[in-house]
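INFO batch 0412 | record 1 of 1 | parsing
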Amino acid sequence: MKLEVKKIGNSTGLILPKELLSRLSFGQGDWVTVTEMADGSIQIRRSDPVFDKGMEIAEKAMQTYRNALEELAK
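INFO prediction complete | emitting tokens
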């Protein structure tokens, strides 16, 4: 599906077709998580507070231990 990036008020965004929103069970006011994948694509999924908290903890740990993780990756 090809969508145009549009100006929406003072912001820029994508308008998702009703059919897609219906298939994904997304509605106005729902929160989604957008993840940039290694191949440059993005993944959009419904936000899950438990998963989001886990990701936040993991990201902080990776920042804190960045040097050690880089050494271990060698």
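INFO post-check: The mean pLDDT is 92.
INFO record closed
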